[in-house]
Design goal:
24 strands, 11 helices, binds adenosine-5'-triphosphate, five-stranded mixed beta sheet, single chain
Length: 418
């Protein structure tokens, strides 16, 4: 992509009404634009990151047997009345049709759609377990939406729902998901700062589990066992005073962002819809369910919160919008422009994702500042001087040192990095 064509240009100042760092950096660097509190447009750079996060999640969910579907956002009141959540869920967006006077909800989560969906296809024990997931926009009437992508009123979520013939089977799959989630956060570059956290299990289980990423802006307080790398959410600290794994009471208080959670629903959402299956002995039994969420857009915000410096974002390679930021420091001779153009074409041919700063209207310092702000992992700079020797300077976003290498070496180095 040529940066001269990229929409929009970077901004020197963050929007005045943004307080969270993720929102400031993402807005300045041109990844997102705020329409109103808690509602964002994903711009070309931002959408590339979001899609990469989606792909990591999709791959792990598919590996764990998940089948992808896409359920409606617009949902009938009746389904929400069946579970009692039409009246009890304070964040539910509701409205009335002007024509039919029917009432609807905008989906904040999808138990009220997925259970009746599965119910339509009479299940036998042979059809279970079943795992359905989607990556979709959710709507929640959040009281406070001031933390950029961390708490949206409209946001992207991955939600998987599992259906089982027994609690034992649910327990086994819960472990599978726990492991899938670890892989996802590892691949997304925040594995080291993300902890399996024991949280309330609601009325049905002792615990549920959250994945909490350590960050100052986080709304949650967790107590971390540094030895086991697991934590306890402050909400259950009174009942759970020690590390659930090693029983140590040496727990460290941290602020954290909940990037995902896994929950045993058991029969909470199968009962209201009479979701049952025919067991091996011919009898009818309740389907047992689990649900597993990841805040896809929140995860993007959480990564920015944990991976940045005073100059901008530092994207982990797996989810960076581009791998290389190629910069042409134009000289009078035109050599650098020729060479930079050649490198750009070569990279595209090799399938290397490259953003090419070919802008005429920026000084060198402004191009470097732009590159730091946008946060692409590799920076390749072509100047009149390096062009003399058919070389360029290469520097990683998170390292100080840089080296000047012949173009062939640079291509190799980038192609060989993962
Ligand atoms: P929270 O405790 O932060 O309000 P939750 O426990 O209500 O979230 P779930 O309903 O389990 O969240 O949703 C699954 C995931 O979706 C969460 O783990 C979180 O990562 C993400 N999420 C929830 N609410 C929002 C929101 N308003 N904006 C962005 N992501 C969200
Ligand atoms: Mg929560």
């Amino acid at each position: 992509m040529r940066q001269s064509q990229l929409f929009p240009k970077t901004q020197k100042e963050a929007p005045k009404d943004e307080t969270a760092l993720n929102a400031k950096l993402l807005a300045r660097a041109g990844f997102v634009d705020k329409l109103m509190a808690g509602v964002y447009t994903f711009l070309p750079l931002g959408l590339r990151v979001l899609k990469k996060i989606e792909d990591i999640i999709r791959e792990e969910m598919t590996k764990a047997g998940g089948q992808e579907i896409l359920m409606p956002v617009l949902q009938p009141k009746e389904n929400w009345q069946k579970t009692g959540r039409w009246d009890s869920l304070d964040i539910l967006f509701k409205f009335v049709s002007h024509y039919s006077k029917n009432e609807y909800a905008l989906g904040p989560t999808h138990e009220e759609v997925v259970s009746p969906l599965v119910k339509k296809f009479s299940l036998s024990y042979k059809n279970l377990p079943l795992y359905l997931f989607q990556i979709q926009t959710k709507f929640r009437d959040e009281k406070r939406a001031k933390s950029g992508l961390l708490r949206g009123r409209e946001f992207l979520m991955k939600d998987l729902y599992s259906f089982h013939a027994s609690e034992k089977d649910l327990d086994d799959y819960y472990k599978v998901m726990e492991n899938s989630y670890k892989n996802i956060f590892e691949k997304a570059g925040i594995g080291k700062k993300t902890y399996l956290t024991f949280a309330s299990g609601g009325s049905f289980s002792k615990y549920s589990h959250e994945f909490q990423t350590e960050a100052e802006v986080g709304e949650d307080v967790i107590f971390l066992c540094e030895k086991c790398r697991v934590a306890v959410n402050s909400e259950i600290k009174k009942e759970q005073k020690t590390c659930p794994q090693c029983d140590s009471n040496d727990l460290v208080e941290k602020k954290a962002i909940e990037v995902g959670n896994i929950f045993k629903l058991k029969t909470k959402y199968s009962n209201p819809f009479k979701l049952k299956f025919i067991a091996q002995d011919g009898s009818e039994k309740d389907v047992v369910m689990g649900c597993y969420g990841i805040g896809v857009s929140r995860l993007m915000g959480a990564i920015v919160e944990t991976s940045n410096d005073e100059n901008g974002i530092i994207w982990p390679e797996a989810i960076a919008p581009y791998k290389v930021h190629l910069i042409n420091l134009k000289g009078k001779e035109g050599k650098s422009s020729r060479l930079a153009g050649e490198i750009y074409e070569k990279m595209i041919k090799k399938g290397i994702e490259v953003l090419f700063n070919d802008r005429d209207d920026l000084r060198a310092g402004e191009k470097f500042a732009d590159a730091d702000l946008i946060g692409i992992p590799y920076r390749v700079i072509v100047s009149e001087k390096t062009a003399e020797n058919d070389s360029a300077e290469i520097k990683k976003r998170d390292e100080e040192k840089s080296e000047v290498l012949p173009i062939g070496e640079i291509m190799k180095k980038i192609a060989n990095s993962n």
